[in-house]
What we know:
Layout: E1 3-9, H1 15-23, E2 30-36, H2 44-48, E3 56-60, H3 70-78, E4 86-89, E5 95-96, H4 100-113, E6 118-126, E7 142-144, H5 145-153, E8 164-167, H6 168-174, H7 185-193, E9 198-210, H8 223-241, H9 247-263, H10 268-280, H11 284-299
Helix pairs in contact: 8-9, 8-10
Amino acid sequence: MKLAIVIPYYKIAFLEECLNSLVAQTNKNFHVYIGNDSSPDDPGELINQYRSSLKLIYTGFSSNLGKTSLVKQWERCIDLVNDEEWILLMGDDDVLGKNCVRDFYNNLEEVNCRNINVFRYSSQVIDESGIAISSTYYHPVIENSIDFLYRRLAGLTRSSLSEYIFRKKQVAKIGFKEFPLAWHTDDLAILEFSNFQNIFSVTTSTVFFRNSGHNISSKNDNTIQKNLANFYFYHYLIKEHSKIFSEHQILILWDKMEKAFLDDKKHVGLAIKYSSLSFKNFKFIRFLDFSRRYLQAILK
C-alpha cells in the first residue's frame, strides 16, 4: 500500500461527508490517519462507524497545537503514517471525487518514471451545502511548479492543500515552512517538494474544497495575519531561492512583497527585513524609491 490519506481533525461539521468520500473511492488501496487536535467536538463515535469500511488509524492528541501552529499539527499527524510512500494531507471539510485514488495509481508508474514528487488533481470550490460555487480548475498534465506559482499570482488559477499528494521522503527531508496561519505554506511546499521542477496533474478526478466561512481561507477576520504571511512568503523566496527565478519573476516577487509591506506599513519588523534584503541584494535605487512611497503612505 503506497498512499496515506492524513486528516488533521478539528471541526466535526463536515467530517462525515469527508469520510463518506473516502468510502466511495473506487480504489480502496489507502490508509486513513486522523489526528484530533484536542477538538471540543469528540469525533470518536462518528469515526467508529467507519472502522469496518476504511483502513483507519485514529489518534486523539491531548494538546491543541493548531491554535498556535497548524504546521506542527500537520507534522504530528504525518508522523502517524507507517510505511506508505505518498501522503495526501486532507482538510476535514473537503471531499475527494470517487476516482481520485484510482487515478493516482493509474498514473503512478509514469510519475515515478519522470521522478516527480508532487501529484495534483483538478479542483472545484463548494459551499457549506456542498453546492459548487466555482468552475472546475484544470491544469496541464506536466507543469513546472514555478510556472504554476506565477499563474496563481496572476489570478489565473487557485490551489489548496487537499488537492495534492506529496512523496513522503520529500516531506520528511524538507518539511513545511511555518508562516502565520500556514498561509502560503502549501504554496512553498509545492515548490520545494517538487525541487522547483514538475507537477503531475490529472483532469479525470476532482477534489472539492469547501469554502464554508469557518476555515482560514474563507474567513475575513484574519487579514493582518494573512498579510504578514504574504510578506514572509515573498521575502523567503527572494532570500532563499532568488537564483531559481528569472529576472522578471524576481521583480514580481519584489512587487508582491512591497505591497504586503505597505498593507501593514506600521510593522517595524517588516521594515527591518525589507531594508536588510534590499541592501544584501544591492537594490539601492529600488529601496530609495520604495522608501519615498512608504513615507507618502505613512503621511496620508
